[in-house]
From TrEMBL:
It comes from Coffea canephora. It catalyses: Hydrolysis of terminal non-reducing beta-D-fructofuranoside residues in beta-D-fructofuranosides. Invertase that cleaves sucrose into glucose and fructose. Its EC number is 3.2.1.26. This is Alkaline/neutral invertase. Keywords: Carbohydrate metabolism, Glycosidase, Hydrolase. GO terms for biological process: sucrose catabolic process. SUPFAM superfamilies: Six-hairpin glycosidases. One of its GO terms (cellular component) is chloroplast. One of its GO terms (molecular function) is sucrose alpha-glucosidase activity. Belongs to the glycosyl hydrolase 100 family.
Length: 640
């Protein structure tokens, strides 16, 4: 290997290899353009290194052939005050030039070997991707061949390099991964941001690999974002709401246009398409926090006062009293992974499964104290009620389907069988033929006079992982997946839901959404990221062969297809018509699945196990036969 020059852009190292070796994508505009047929444009490189040798602060590429200083002094901008970058000083440019594999550090960061990873892009504030030219797109298309030329022959090796290429740095430290690193995308929208839900599989992959710092940084920085003031059209949501995503931006310092600083800019839904509320963000954050403690053994993070406060704020927001009579969370459409109009408003299963899991995780992590007694009591009561409600009313199999088929409607009594006044004619014709004789699942949604009979993969899988489903129900869900393999897995795991909304139903429910056409995107598209949830669920139920078969299906084409976001058509034969390539959570989902299959014991750190008190409470509730509830003793009212 030849020598390498490493420059520090905002405390993030970018590597330039002078010999004929594989380049790494960096945050600069010239990282790929200057590498043509194995040679660097020496004139440009020398031009970029011109200037005095006593640069101080963090060097940042402002444009082609220009390096400016980045100071971390002065007053930060507006609301970005508490999260501005406080980078360390580099005394001279010679400190930023090191040899590959020397192990020297720049600003406290060890310089990795040239093939250890692809350094993540430092995303700048010009709202453009750092990869845009035709040469760069062609280079990305040849990535697989290049990796194989350096002995990186397995899909897993390629995935790890791509995952590390997606890392975003803040103040010199890894803070998360961008949603997608697609060089062919003409419009990046918000795919260059760090999404909380999208980072979960990335975080799990790093935890399984023993790389804990990035997860710790992500947890603590997103916690700081939680307390920010959030306003849309003069309205502020409740405290405790976590952002859907955030971005590392470079902004000029107040009073000094020649210097810049890094800040975190969150989106709580006020800039999102459709202005959807990120209900699931706080739930995923609690789940990841518990996983970090389980894998790293570092319980000091969850015991911090600010972290304990953050957990309580999320719980208070979720457990707040409202008009609803049900223990399930009432949310708007598009409030979870399905973040567009798809008819899931109300009490979608995915939110309920994550809610239940987050409650269990929070109860495990909360420090016992007198001030939290009421909160913990409300949490325990909600766990029992939520578990009973989902198991009793969301579950459907052939027996339950036949029971609904024979329902009597318009029952007014405390002991009604058809509590939600479901009309038998709601049973869709496809379900009568599709339901296997063995197996079952939780329906997608339940409201008065409405049952959404679609099968939603994430909600059902997380019901297994969180023990929201009983042991028998968990096995039945996996039985259904096996029985309906061609519908749910087909040519690429895993359908986000089944079946698709079509015809007039699609027109009415989605509002003619051109992205959610039948068998595409959220409308029954296939999402490779769901592979890791399937693997955890299968390992928990001691049926890993189901996940192994799904992984084999994915490996046939996912790397060749450049790691798409999702797949289209009923059999998942086409790459999604608007799918981003090099989608980070597709990459991370595959890696987590592979790591868990090779080390099944690690899955125990991701699952929730019911404790004896909850089991006893549920047993009592079931034995009380809620279908025949005694009349309440009426109280006499008084006028004062």
């Amino acid at each position: 290997m030849g020598s390498s020059i490493q420059l520090v852009f905002g405390a993030v190292p970018c590597h330039y290899t002078t010999a004929k070796s594989y380049f790494t994508r960096s945050s600069s505009y010239f990282s790929v353009k200057n590498y043509v047929k194995g040679k660097w444009d020496k004139d440009i490189l020398c031009e970029q290194l011109k200037g005095p040798v006593d640069f101080q602060g963090c060097l940042r590429v402002q444009g082609r052939g220009a390096i400016s200083r980045l100071y971390s002094v002065g007053k930060p901008n507006r609301r970005l005050e508490t999260l501005s970058c406080k980078c360390q000083r580099t005394e001279s440019v010679s400190q930023a030039i090191v040899e590959v594999g020397s192990g020297k550090s720049v600003n406290g960061m060890s310089e990795p070997s040239s093939l250890q990873s692809l350094e993540g892009p430092k995303l700048l504030n010009n709202e453009k991707t750092v990869i845009s030219s035709d040469d760069e797109i062609a280079a990305a298309s040849e990535m697989s061949d290049t990796l194989q030329g350096f002995g990186i022959n397995s899909i897993e090796d390629e995935a790890w390099n791509l995952l590390r290429a997606s890392i975003v740095y803040y103040c010199g430290n890894p803070i998360g991964t961008i949603a997608a690193n697609d060089p062919s995308a003409a419009n990046i929208l918000n795919y260059d941001q760090i999404f909380i839900r999208d980072f979960i599989p990335s975080g799990m992959a790093f935890l399984l690999k023993g790389e804990y710092d990035i997860v710790r940084n992500f947890i603590l920085h997103t916690l700081q974002l939680q307390s920010w003031e959030k306003t849309m059209d003069c309205h502020s949501p409740g405290q405790g709401l976590m952002p859907a995503s955030f971005k590392v931006r470079t902004v000029p310092l107040d009073g000094d246009d020649s210097a810049t600083e890094d800040v975190l800019d969150p989106d709580f839904g006020e800039a999102a398409i459709g202005r959807v509320a990120p209900v699931d963000s706080g739930l995923w954050w609690i789940i990841l926090l518990r996983a970090y403690g389980k894998f790293s053994g570092d319980l000091s993070v969850q015991e911090r006062v600010d972290v304990q406060t953050g957990i309580k704020m999320i719980l208070k927001l979720c457990l707040a009293d409202g008009f609803d009579m049900f223990p399930t969370l009432l949310v708007t459409d598009g409030s979870c992974m399905i973040d567009r109009r798809m008819g899931i408003h109300g009490h979608p299963l995915e939110i309920q499964a994550l809610f239940y899991s987050a409650l269990l995780c929070a109860r495990e992590m909360l420090v016992p104290e007198e001030a939290s007694a009421d909160l913990i009591r409300a949490l325990n009561n909600r766990l029992v009620a939520l578990s009973f409600h989902i198991r009793e009313y969301y579950w459907i199999d052939m027996r339950k389907l036949n029971e609904i088929y024979r329902y009597t409607t318009e029952e007014y009594s405390y002991d009604a069988v058809n509590k939600f006044n479901i009309y038998p004619d709601q049973i869709p014709p496809w379900l009568v033929e599709w339901m296997p004789t063995t197996g079952g699942y939780f329906i997608g949604n339940l409201q008065p006079a409405h049952m959404d009979f679609r099968f939603f993969s994430l909600g059902n899988l997380w019901s297994i992982i969180s023990s929201l489903a009983t042991t028998d129900q968990s096995h039945a869900i996996l039985d259904l997946i096996e029985a309906k393999w061609e519908d749910i897995v087909a040519n690429m795991p895993l359908k986000i839901c089944y079946p698709a909304l079509e015809g007039e139903e699609w027109q009415i429910i989605t509002g003619y959404d051109p992205k959610n056409t039948p068998w595409s995107y959220h409308n029954a598209g296939a999402w490779p990221t769901l592979l890791w949830q399937l693997t955890v669920a299968c390992i928990k139920m001691n049926r890993p062969e189901i996940a192994e078969n799904a992984i084999k299906v994915a490996e046939r084409r996912i790397a060749r297809d450049k790691w798409p976001e999702y797949y289209d058509t009923k059999g998942a034969r086409f790459i999604g018509k608007q799918a981003r390539l090099f989608q980070t959570w597709s990459i991370a989902g595959y890696l987590v699945a592979k790591l868990l299959i090779s080390n099944p014991k690690a899955a125990k750190k991701l699952i929730n196990v019911e404790d004896s008190e909850l089991v006893n409470a549920l047993s009592y509730a079931l034995s009380a036969n809620p279908k025949k509830r005694p009349r309440r003793k009426l109280k006499q009212s008084y006028i004062i």
